């Protein structure tokens, strides 16, 4: 709910309303604004917003309109699964339209208080939904869906392919989405006279508004099947299993999201939503990723650390010979160029080899005697 404040004079009545956030959101730390962590649940987000909104609502004593708008913006993004996924991945959202029908379904009725006689309470979605993208005469869009897939560490570095079977509402492959039985004809929809949409006039306290909406019978197609398809019952779409081919690019990280436009659920007579693929990368016992570089440890004998030696260092592809220079220090890094994570066009990071000098826990009699001689040499 959003409130309108009514100011009357002897000549006319004017209305001031809170402007909805119908713009693309710039990067802000929305979690800090609401005082929550990144793994907060939907319920945690709603509770945090309710508590802070009650404190900063402009109609409350000591309220802060700017702070309240900032809280509303944060809640609008984080309460929407799609926008939150985009925000977590890219630090901003890319949706051109703002919240559909108000602030993510949050009810502001609890903030109605001291000025009840001068406020109107209404649902932005009910009154303006058809004029600002919540329906109207445009074709419907199907539901977005999301899945999770697991990758090995090597697959995350070099890329991978996955074929997954998803149960979702898809275009009927029997009638190719027409809704008609194969071989039968389509006729003009009698409900909308073939226009695919219907015009309606509604009276509100702003005056009369004329809007259009999709025809509920033909779903905006303007035609209906004379003999409905026996598989989808004339809808042109039904829930079935569909194999999705996913190409995972090289260099992805744990928790990243792949967006596949048009691979979500289809809306009868409309377009398909998007498929979001969240990636989970298994840890590797030998390698740790640092940006585009890989870090691994190389155990080196004490004698080789003092005198130098050659070691075969395992990379993600093969063993690479490495010369350990004499006198190398414990924890020192040896860099192997071009054996890290691919990025850009033909570029790769490096393999960073950390030297771990292995100090013997027990010494033989002869080894102790040799080390005693080294001590006399001042080593």
Summarize the structure in words.
The chain is α+β, with helices and mostly antiparallel strands. The chain contains 8 helices and 20 strands. The protein has helices spanning 30-34, 42-56, 65-78, 81-90, 124-128, 153-158, 302-307, 365-376, and strands spanning 2-8, 13-17, 119-122, 145-151, 160-171, 186-188, 197-204, 207-214, 223-225, 237-248, 257-260, 275-281, 288-290, 293-301, 309-314, 319-324, 333-336, 342-343, 347-348, 351-358. The strands form 8 sheets. The chain has a 4-stranded mixed β-sheet with strand order 13-14-20-17. The longest helix has 15 residues, at 42-56.
Question: Which key features would you list for this structure?
Answer:
three-stranded antiparallel beta sheet, elongated, about 375 residues, 3 domains, 8 helices, Helix Hairpins, disordered N terminus, alpha+beta, HSP40/DNAj peptide-binding domain, four-stranded mixed beta sheet, Chaperone, DNAj Protein, Chain A
* SS elements, strand count: 20
- From the N-terminal CA to the C-terminal CA, the straight-line distance is 79 Å
Total count of helical runs of at least 4 residues:
8
Order of helices and strands: EEHHHHEHEHEEEEEEEEEEHEEEEEEH
Beta percentage is 25-35%
By secondary-structure content and strand pairing, the structural class works out as: alpha+beta
Described by the principal axes of the CA atoms, the overall outline is: elongated
Number of domains: 3
- Could you tell me the CATH topology label of the largest domain: Chaperone, DNAj Protein, Chain A
How much helix, percentage-wise, in residues? Answer: 10-25%
The CATH architecture assignment of the largest domain turns out to be Ribbon
- What is the CATH first-level class name of the largest domain? Mainly Beta
Q: Rg from C-alpha positions?
A: 32 Å
- Low-pLDDT stretches are 1-26, 96-137
Question: What is the mean predicted local confidence, pLDDT?
Answer: 79
Tell me about the largest β-sheet: 4 strands, mixed
Question: What do we call the CATH homologous superfamily of the largest domain?
Answer: Heat shock protein DnaJ, cysteine-rich domain
Give the strand order of the largest sheet, numbering strands 1, 2, ... along the chain: 13-14-20-17
